Amino acid sequence: MDALEASGMIPAEWREIGHTHPWGFESPDYDAFVYYYIDEDLYAAYEPYWNVDEADLPALAGIGDLRFEQMEPVCHAIVAVRISGDGEEPAYLATLYETGRYCVCVSEWERKDGKEAYTSTVRSDYEPDSERLSCIVRREGKEWICSKK
Predict the structure, then answer these.
(1) Cα–Cα nearest to 96, from 116, 67, 126
(2) pTM of the model
(3) Termini Cα distance of the chain
């Protein structure tokens, strides 16, 4: 991500809010990452969507999908997919999408002892039509180099 910041692909006024792995056929693809960012001036207004306190869990349980669907697509997403083989220096195709959403959703369940418990999961997406630019990020020695396509 430092190479992407140095190349200007990640502007200084963006703040990282989280990351996920995209899903493959049946499980997460651990050779790919999706990093989510938001403009600095929007961070405080949207922080409750991903920064959830334990005290907030009961109030948020069960409305996660609704919160996610109502969230405006104000995030930016960078999808980084590994394109080099095993044993080679790592290289990734990094693509910037201007429009996305990132939200923590809360589910309530009952433990065996009858007490309520909560599980939080991240729900996220990005708009494929909002692609802005791509680059190849590869390691040369100890440095990461970004080559814009």
Answers:
(1) 126
(2) 0.87
(3) 17
